[in-house]
Amino acid sequence: MADQSSIKQLEADLWSAADVLRSSANLNANQYCMPVLGLLFLKYAYGRYKRVEVELMKNRPSRGGVKMPVTAQDFRAKSALYLPREAQYDYLLNLPGNIASANIVDEQKRQLTSLGDVVNYAMRLIEQQTDQLKGILPDTYNIINDEVLAKLLRIFNNDKLEQVGGDVIGRIYEYFTGKFSKAIADDDGVFFTPKSLVQMIVNIIEPSHGTVLDPACGSGGMFVQSGDFVNNHGMNANSALTFYGQEKVTFNARLCLMNMAVHGLNAIIKSGDEANTYTQDAHNLVGECDFVMANPPFNVNGVEEATVSGSNRLPFGLPAVNKDKEISNANYLWIQYFYAYLNETGRAGFVMASSATDSQSKDRTIREKLVKTGHVDCLISVANNFFYTLTLPCTLWFFDKNKREQNRDKILFIDSRNYYTVVEKTLNEWNEWQMRNINAIVWLYRGETDKYRNLISTYRMWLNDFFNRYDNAALQPVEKSWQTYREGIEATLACFKGNLKKLEADMKATRKRKEKAELKELVEETTMQVAEITEALDVINQLIWLVDKFGEYGTYRDIPGLCRIADISEVEGKNFSLTPGAYTGAEETASDDVDFTARMKEIHAELEKLQNESAQIFATIKANESLLWK
Hints:
By secondary structure, this protein is of the alpha/beta class. It has helices at 4-24, 29-58, 72-77, 89-93, 115-127, 146-155, 161-164, 168-179, 195-205, 221-232, 237-240, 250-262, 305-308, 331-341, 362-372, 432-445, 449-469, 482-509, 513-550, 568-573, 581-584, 596-628, and strands at 62-63, 66-67, 210-214, 241-247, 267-271, 289-294, 303-304, 326-327, 342-353, 376-382, 394-400, 410-415, 421-424, 427-429, 563-567. The protein contains 22 helices and 15 strands.
């Protein structure tokens, strides 16, 4: 996962690109948003193209001592988008100021004389590589003068784009809409789902084959992460999976298709009125999906009863209807749709408003019927501030129609509201290791202890590599335990931080140019080392968090305040509430060996003393007040 400081710097760079267009090109937000995203697409596609090209050339057969050139088919086999030379980012970046002198001709043999025309041509060449991009990429670059467009190309020549990963286009687009033009997106950017939530859903439902549906697909983040999941397991995503998406907002659907193309993925995406999932089953996939995943809009009202009544996507009945013949809250439309789309062995994972786990009236009746199917697998409570522009908490829901027999009448509840990483004041996330740890709880619930033990091995290998690179006495304790290793990392970090502080002071104090340059290099090197050691401290903290709860070899147990496996009979006893906290209870706290009765007597004595002092102070104030008014 990319370093958040890198992402923040990237956003600042992209905002400067928007500033260039606002100040220099006389364009409004609706005109420049898509061209900016098009350049983002082009740069990200080029970075992926170069990485795949290097991989393809490693064992490339030769003819006459010359390696055979790569083809578009080679890139498709690697789930990557092929880019003709004239559509490659470095080609556009290095064009001369006088475009006419480059003698570039387009597909109709017309000579191109402006940079805008050349970029438009590049977009058309890319569209020719895959049918799903036909008419999708922006083609208005000739409304931007060459000087401004060249400056934008330089701004976007930023390797940090490749570090973001996942739904990079969706994330940056939401940043833009949140920053300067929410009017562009009908959904105010809520279509974007944070990477850690998407990855958690993908990791738990494990979409490895068959039909994958996202009926609220937005910019396609669920598909991108599913593709990565399959590719990382040594398979080809386009061969293993068939992606279907619905997205009512056409602009968002264009972003989804761009996102899919840049990751070399094929998808069937429908948009506009025919893709309004409230009322339309655009792909006729009821009962056909191996995997369903989504982040639908929360708590929507106003869906007309007549448009959904009698739908074969509502196996448990219609939610509550108000006096205006409208669905009062669409959450349980979505929940039933996700369930209805699954085939007999399908899995679903989706984001939902936290209120849906305990809502009453007809929602409660629907939830009872859903629970009694035995197909509710797991629910995970998520803390506030995981969304980029929203602060509300949410819950991840998981269905599994092919549970192992031991779990048929059970549900796993995980309350992770106190387990996350603070990115900044209003943004939280799960880091890579936290996601793996939560996933590990699900593995143990499913009896997949081999996956748990592989994770422990991954921790060990990561830390061994770190210890080999930072070999010192503090990292080799006499007592070999994870706690003592952690103490060694903490001591090493304190040492390096002290060195860094001294180097920074020396660099600031010296007036000698050569000495300052040498110190600057040392400061930069030590800063990187402090970052690496800080990361190691987090890794070992996460390992200790996991091992303290479930051991080195993985034995599931209920952990108060974190996780609990509940029988359906217990859920019934709680009026079919699916709120994780109702089952996990309070977090365990370590005993401090304090005599509770004695301590309570002390507290009461202290309280009585404070009350007496308060009475005396109040009497003094009243006396002074009476003097004041005399």
